[in-house]
Amino acid sequence: MDELIARLTERVEVDAPTAAALVAIVIQFLAREAPAEAMAPLYQTHPWARALADAAPREDATAQSERHFGGMARLMQVADRMMAHGLTMPQVQLAVRETVAYARETVGAEPVNLLVRSVPGLTHVV
Fold first, then answer.
1. Is the dihedral of CA 113, 22, 42, 32 positive or negative?
2. What is the CB neighbour count within 10 angstroms for residue 37?
3. How far does Cα 31 stand from its chain's mean position?
4. Which DSSP string corresponds to 66-105?
5. What is d(CA 104, CA 113) in angstroms, rounded to the nearest whole number?
6. How many Cα atoms occupy the beta-carbon half-sphere of 103 within 13 Å?
7. pLDDT at 64
8. pLDDT (tens digit, 9 = 90+) per residue, 13-28?
9. What is the rounded distance in angstroms from the CA atom of residue 91 to the CA atom of residue 4?
10. For the chain, which ranges sit under pLDDT 50?
11. Which of 7, 12, 56, 103 has its CA 20 to 30 A from that of 94?
């Protein structure tokens, strides 16, 4: 995870604690939205990703009832969470793209492409 944090710190131009928060936001989003089998290669390669996913706050009844708004609305919630850390929308997009690019480099293109395709709307971001 340190490599990814360093990468985001440099390319997104944020400090290390913010970069770590961004990684957690992306991983927790993927863990909620993607099927378990799509997440498995990421977890096998990066055990810290499983720990981040497991540390996610549980959804309350309101959040569960809002799931009908679709994947793009949930992606916007990710953007809102990142912007709460002071990011601009271009930085949000870059952070997501860099995180997915890092996963492709370390896990492999095909498993990560399957993961991305399994999450509604994510292919439009990356």
1. negative
2. 10
3. 8
4. GGGG-HHHHHHHHHHHHHTTT--HHHHHHHHHHHHHHHHH
5. 8
6. 29
7. 47
8. 999 999 999 999 999 9
9. 15
10. 60-62, 64-65, 68-69
11. 56
